[in-house]
Amino acid sequence: MKQLQTTLKISVLALAVLISACNSKPKSQSSTDSATEKSGENWIQLFNGEDLNDWKIKFKGDELGVNYNNTFRVEDGLLCVSYDNWDEWNGKFGHIFYKDEFSHYKLHVVYRFVGEQSKNGPGWAFRNNGLMIHGQSAESMALDQDFPTSIEVQLLGGVTGKGERSTMNLCTPGTNVIMNDSLIEQHCINSTSETQLDDKWVDVMVEVHGGEVIRHFVDGVEVMHYEQPQLDPRDQYYDKMLPLYGDKMISKGTISLQAESSPTQFKTVEVLVLEE
């Protein structure tokens, strides 16, 4: 009887060890799984943490591909918008475009504002950047064009003691949207987000369903949505954009990040393509 009990104990212990071995994973693999657990699917890393080879840079007044004053760069695994090589702000707005276009997708970004704004930078551009979605191509921008025709998901940062300032707002360079069944021609609309203070990392998401609905999220909470993104007939580039998009209604386009006088860092820029 004792021999049988001993045999059973050994068998149970061996089975437990086997199950534990089968379920365990190396730490590096567990970390990778956690990064994709939010979707259960594969995210496309637009920023690979190493270089900007998949991106195209356009500054106002310069030809495509000129990285003015090395403003866009990779440092310590971060995509940085830096102004340490600028003496002062001179009106040269910049944008960095990912190489591909997207239509139905989620755009996940983690960003923060750091350091001091470029000397003489516009007051409205203080701690200001943007996720430009459904944008025109970098190649189609005019030499002296300030901003790409696009839907801008505006990123704003606050400062302790300086009042409220929402982020993930909507701005519309060359475009309009429908909100609450009304055509919105106002350039910028604030979201319902809380102020993101100082140098805090901010986790945001944009959910884009082609030419239908677009939703903004901060830390997983929806702070704004609107519908039917479209070209604005009042804009000076409307006649040029219409044949490029193929329709007044916008259902796809580029993704770009801004440089408009405030140093910014991005540690995550990734896309999950959704079924149409």
Structure write-up:
With 276 residues, the protein is α+β, with helices and mostly antiparallel strands. The chain has 2 domains: 1-37; 38-273, Jelly Rolls (Sandwich), CATH 2.60.120. The chain is built from 3 helices and 17 strands. The protein has helices spanning 2-23, 27-36, 238-245, and strands at residues 44-45, 55-59, 72-75, 78-81, 94-98, 104-113, 128-135, 151-156, 169-171, 175-179, 182-184, 188-189, 202-209, 213-218, 221-231, 254-259, 264-273. The strands form 2 sheets. Strands 1, 3, 4, 6, 10, 11, 13, 14, 15 and 17 form a 10-stranded antiparallel sheet that branches. A hairpin with a 2-residue loop joins strand 14 (213-218) and strand 15 (221-231).
What order do the helices and strands come in, and which of them pair?
Elements: H1 2-23, H2 27-36, E1 44-45, E2 55-59, E3 72-75, E4 78-81, E5 94-98, E6 104-113, E7 128-135, E8 151-156, E9 169-171, E10 175-179, E11 182-184, E12 188-189, E13 202-209, E14 213-218, E15 221-231, H3 238-245, E16 254-259, E17 264-273
Antiparallel strand pairs: 1-17, 2-5, 3-4, 4-17, 5-16, 6-13, 6-17, 7-8, 7-16, 8-9, 9-12, 10-11, 10-15, 13-14, 14-15
What are the defining features of this structure?
ten-stranded antiparallel β-sheet, disordered N terminus, Jelly Rolls, 17 strands, single chain, seven-stranded antiparallel β-sheet, 2 domains, alpha+beta, 276 residues
